[in-house]
Amino acid sequence: MDLLSKKITFRHALAQWYAKAQRPLPWRTQPSLYRTVVSELMAQQTQIKTMLPYFERWMRRFPNFTALAEASSEDVLKHWEGLGYYSRARNLHKLAQQYIAAESKPRTQAAWQALPGIGPYTSAAISSIALGEAAAVVDGNVVRILARLNDDARVFKNNGEAVKAFTTTADALLDTANPGQHNQAMMELGATLCLKHKPLCTVCPVATFCAAKRNGTQDARPKIERKASIKIEINRAWVLQGDKLLLHRIAENSSQLAGQYELPTLEAVSAKTSKRRLLASRSRAITHRRIKEHIYQTKPKRTLDHSIEWIAVRDLPRITLSGPHRRWINELMSMHNSVAGTQ
Q1: Taking every annotated instance into account, which residue ranges of this chain make up the domain HhH-GPD (predicted)?
Q2: Residue 161 designated active-site
Q3: Domain that includes residue 120, residue range
């Protein structure tokens, strides 16, 4: 028999495991519609262990839709600092404002999907977990589980194509009596056992249903073509004069990191690498981009672009910096203070 013919026993095995093995995450131990919404947007592009301290800090400052809706955009971005993909914070802020203003509150997947930053997956998660609607979630974790359960050897061009391909199966497998618990169990299984690399098949509660495990092909499922990595190198300037640091403020209409600060590029301050002292080199990855940034100690030209600003060191904690730049500035300030203390 195929998986769908065994769906009742599959659901039962999954539910029993989830009841015992689920992680005590704060939006589960203290569930609410608002906490579900915040956790789902935070979890986009971010691992749970990374987002947990940010979630707790966020809930202390913005405990409900009203508090978030009434906050300034600067305050919202400041409390998101370090999580990256800041469009999520802006969308969450707009969502709260629209939710508070709405006479008829969204109760269905379709209604939630009309709000800022909410796509098919997030709307299904919110409506099923918080509102009990029978809507199946399909993300990378669920795709991986379903591809392995059916030992599906199809090759997908990207994640979006794979999600579409497995949505029908996910809908058919959904426990419509307990959709929220079923969806969370599927996501939990993918996050903790049915891992992308080296899945923990020996302790998987639904291993007996898994065709890929029987065939020894679990490491090869699903087959999704990945974008080729792009290598990028950026030269940054470290200009500290007295108690002020030179920073670049990203334009408000920028598609990424709008209004935030970062170390300026050498080009922005008209400096050349050959004549400057290299202080540090740091690497990071954003999706398929591999970025290496070199930070040089230098002096700026006399006339600077309006986006280049002198910021007092004492004000650094108050402004919103991108996560990596916050870390780098803290490191370099510590180095500077250590050197200054020995002189």
Answers
A1: 42-192
A2: no
A3: 32-129
